[in-house]
Amino acid sequence: MTPPLPTVAAPLRDPLAPPLLDAQGRRMTYLRLSITDRCNFRCTYCSPASWGGKKDLLTPDEFARIVSVFAAMGIQRVRLTGGEPLIRPDILEIAQRIASTPGVRRVAITTNASHLERLAAPLREAGVSQLNISLDTLSAETFRRISKQGDFAATLRGIDAAAKAGYDSLKLNVVVMRGINDDEAPALARYAHERGITPRFIELMPFGQGTPVPTAELIAQMQAAGLSLAPEPADEDASSLTSGPARYWRAPTGRVGFISPLTQNFCGGCNRVRVASNGDLRSCLGGRAQAPLHQLIRGGASDTDLALAIRGALGEKPEGHRFTEAGNGSTLLPMMGIGG
Ligand code: SAM
Ligand code: SF4
To answer: From the CB of residue 7, how many other CB atoms can be counted at a distance below 10 Å?
Structure first.
């Protein structure tokens, strides 16, 4: 009689090894890390009415740990956001630790620019190569109306400091609101181009007050105001280091980007995963909290435990957000905690 064949266990994949795939088979290469839910501004489209800063934020060690696990799994780009990331007193340490993590090729920050006059050069030295700067208006009065408590002059000085600090890439994020700043798009594009910055106009998402302007309408409005705009071909490689949700057009003075979460769903090429300021991994901006990475770390989880929790959450990443579904806006987490 033939002896039974020995059973060979299927080789187990190392959960810490790349690639990091979501439920749709999309490869995740980009981590957005909200390092605080606090902010020195109260933008009308972002601040929840009942905003209260969370005290139990992650430490630089904990961020470095989370990023090292993600980087081992295939994350190459990290963006620090918030709240306002530059109000953390330890921002330079956080940036430097993340920029020196093996596997991390680019570190970017999204900021309201209020602290950039002091921090633009040190952040560049710490290894940050890209800044996305938020500025919705060139009018001091409209700025006050939108940000409630922002310092307009300091913001403009911060943008000028960033323009001189030698960053590889600078972008200006403009959230467009009907009747508030939608007539300023050509002037904001010019302002950005004069400083070597690429402007990007964003459709307002339903996290706070204001009425969105569809991108197609905004482009027509800009063209009617005399700005010549021609579309550039889309970047088809969703996993490239430069790809993102923006679609670019060419104006005489430079590129102009449009981000259209409402009218041109960009979820198909999603390569991003988010960690909210409470340390919860969120697989989608429009989804629910999923893996409590901070709690796991404080409970003594190993890197493999963290990797398994990350893979488990990404296994439930939805195909796309559902901002345009009726009533969904009211059930989303505030933008400040997730970081955009
Ligand atoms: N405080 C930083 C800043 O303002 O740049 C980083 C955090 S902020 C939440 C990140 C980005 O999200 C900003 O560019 C902001 O304009 C954008 N944002 C906030 N609320 C938004 C909304 N309701 N719709 C579209 N973009 C929004
Ligand atoms: Fe603060 Fe940025 Fe939100 Fe404005 S958009 S309230 S600056 S986090």
So the answer is: 5
Please state the rounded mean pLDDT for residues 250-271.
88
Domain presence at residue 5: no
pLDDT in tens, 79-115: 999 999 999 999 999 999 999 999 999 999 999 999 9
Number of H helices, E strands in the chain: 10, 12
If pLDDT is split at 50, 70 and 90, which confidence band does 283 have? Answer: confident
Q: What pLDDT band is residue 288 in, cutting at 50, 70 and 90?
A: low
Residue 6 within a domain? no
Domain count of the fold of the chain: 1
* Strand bridging mode 280-282 / 291-292: antiparallel
Pick 170 or 234 by higher pLDDT.
170
Q: Which of 36, 88, 112, 134 to mutate to test the pocket of ligand 1 (most atoms within 8 A of CB)?
A: 134
CA distance 4 to 187: 78
CA 174 – ligand 2 centroid, Å: 12
Sign of CA dihedral 49, 87, 203, 193: positive
Give domain status of residue 254, yes or no: yes
Ligand 2 pocket, residue 82 CB under 6 Å: yes
CA distance 128 to 168: 9
Claim: this prediction has a pTM higher than 0.85: yes
**Domain, as residue range, for 223:** 30-322
Residue 259 placed within a domain: yes
The answer to whether the CB of 69 is under 6 A from ligand 2 is no
Cβ(91) – ligand 2 distance below 6 Å: no
Residue 169 sits in a domain of what CATH number?
3.20.20.70
Measured in residues, the chain has a length of 340
Q: CA 108, CA 132: separation in Å to the nearest integer?
A: 8
